[in-house]
Amino acid sequence: MNVLIGIVVLLGLLAAGVPVAFGLLIAGSVGLLLQGGPDLLLGILGTGPTSALNSYELITIPMFLLMAEFMVTSGISLTLFNAIAAWTRSWRGGLGIATAVTGAAFGAISGSSAAAAATLSTSSVPAMLQNGYERKFATGIVSISGTLAMLIPPSIAIIFYGLLSGANIGQLLIAGIVPGILVTLTIALTIRIMIRLNPSLAPVGSKAPWAEKLASLKVAGPFMLLFGLVTGLIYTGIATPVEASALGALGAFLLTLKSGKLTRANFRLALIKTCVTSAMIGLIIVCANVFGTFLTITGATQDLVAQVAASGWSPWVILVFIAVLYLILGCFLDQISILILTIPIMLPLITSLGFDPVWFGVVVILLAEVGIVTPPVGLNVFVVSKVTRIPVEEVFRGIWPHVLAHVILIAFIMAFPSVVLWLPSKMS
Amino acid sequence: MSTQRFSGSLAVILMALHRSLSLLEAIGIVVASLGILMMMFVTGVDVILRYVVSSPLTWWYDFLMNYVLLASFYLAFSYTLAHHGHLAVDFFASKLPRPAAFLMSAAGFLASGILLLLVGHSAVHESIVSFINDDVLAGVILWPVWISKALVAWGILVLALRSVHFSACYFVATVNEAAFHSIGLARRLDELEEVTQ
Predict the structure, then answer these.
(1) Which residue in B75, B64, B145 sits closest to A57, CA to CA?
(2) The model's pTM
């Protein structure tokens, strides 16, 4: 009963617009008060929140955020689309495919899907519209391509999952690479199928001269350098994720310095934005400590695991049910809220069913990707709409074919966990 | 709901509280930013020294974990709240009548402010005890423990006061919407000063 009261209070506070962190703190405190009285509550408040931020891996969050901020400041990410489009624009739908590949490349330097969507909206939407692409088709591609940043390392959502679940963060980051490539290919394939069904969506573009193609390779340098510094070092085991994140931030800082775009004002802004986003995640972890302790004391997760085990249902049926639940939650909540609300309960259940926590993390991130492009609160769609000034409804209309393709891909990855787990198993 | 100018002694008190908190938040965000920069530079240098010349900075890990990490996160909490940077679900709240939404926000911020004051009180107490006992961390350098406790206490207490300030502003806003602009957003400071004059 106390668990139910705690969860109802939490959902009520979230619906009222109270910050997620405060909702967790209040609901957890109400639950602890009911469960063990004021002494228990004061005991937990006096110890839990003050020691919650003691994980070494937490450092990866501000470092990867700072790396992305510097790269956005450098303006290199804006030139990336043109560089990739030089190779693909002569194909039918080539600019759309270039957008998907740019989303993947941007994901390799930034863990924020909203930042990716905003950058892609600035660079690729005007180019696609100028070349006769239909508006909802173009914005749909940008919205879905922005989600790749959540999957391809360094992904803040994956690190957050790692901090919540205790799974190996290095393995989690590497596990996102193959699904990230598959999502990129799926977006490209969806574009081609849509154009085959309706050729008026996108005309054939002009061929870029070889001089332009060769010049575009210069842009690839900084991205390859950062990808090597971060993902390469983690994969080879030369550096830990924390060390790789600091080197990535340092590398991005030096690249931005070299670009000549690092003014005092945007240096300050990059630092403040990094601090604000880190603090947002940090406070959620601090307050989730109280709510998590409440759940642990009630034994709710163990009861759930025992009940599911006694139900006799197939693990795959339960997994499909969980996936549908995540898709529904994704319609209303952002990925960080979904992770903080569900992982403490779902992870013990998933591991008791015999599934791998690294694989489950990637599946959850893929499901959350769908959530950030579906109504009513698809964050990426709102970002694209705001930057391009194209109505939200029109952007949403262009997203559905990609959502369908994404769900099919998720089903494939759920059916074949080795797709996710193969690369981490090869790590040094 | 009235939308007339929000003025009087309550407005002056809220404005004074806002200015005081803004000053503390500005100091906090500068320290947090310096911490982030240190993380980047010193960790980067540490990695290079470790793998290139096999001579890592042995003091850095303890310093990073006990001071830099805590300062970078805890000291930015209140600044983030003041700039509405903390994650919230707006979808349902935006469908509610504004006075009801303000009232619920006020209650939420008040409750969290009180709970955070309890957390902050405990952190202050622990810091004082550590200072009196001269507690230090075992390691290459004997770093004092009370500083890390004090950093946590500072971050949590400023956040608690900002929550209480937000709560008061939202309560006032339920009857006078003009007060909504005095919630304490730094970028709305000009509007706030105009309102309280």
Answers:
(1) B64
(2) 0.87
